[in-house]
Amino acid sequence: MADSQVFANATGVGMKPLEGQTYIPDKSYFPRSLIVVDIAYSPRETAMLKMAKVAGCRTMNGLGRMLFQGAAAFELWTGQPMPVDYM
């Protein structure tokens, strides 16, 4: 990961029933310049994101992805845009 710019977890590791778990052994795997994304949305800060934050990385959880995926589905089903600004 030393030469990477972004690291993304798109697995269920970190969410129930695997909450609190991560497959990254320790924060030394995260260079400070890395952007770390976890597609998990619950908990909002997974063990991996906490570790990355301690390492000084920028982090992003999956809450926005869940919202906008839902908005796209809402529009497909109803033909109306979902009012995401109110959510």
TrEMBL record:
SUPFAM superfamilies: NAD(P)-binding Rossmann-fold domains (SSF51735). GO terms for biological process: chorismate biosynthetic process; shikimate metabolic process. Residues 66-87 form the SDH C-terminal domain. GO terms for molecular function: shikimate 3-dehydrogenase (NADP+) activity. InterPro entries: NAD(P)-bd_dom_sf, SDH_C, Shikimate_DH_fam. It comes from the Bacteria. This is SDH C-terminal domain-containing protein. It comes from Anaerotalea alkaliphila.
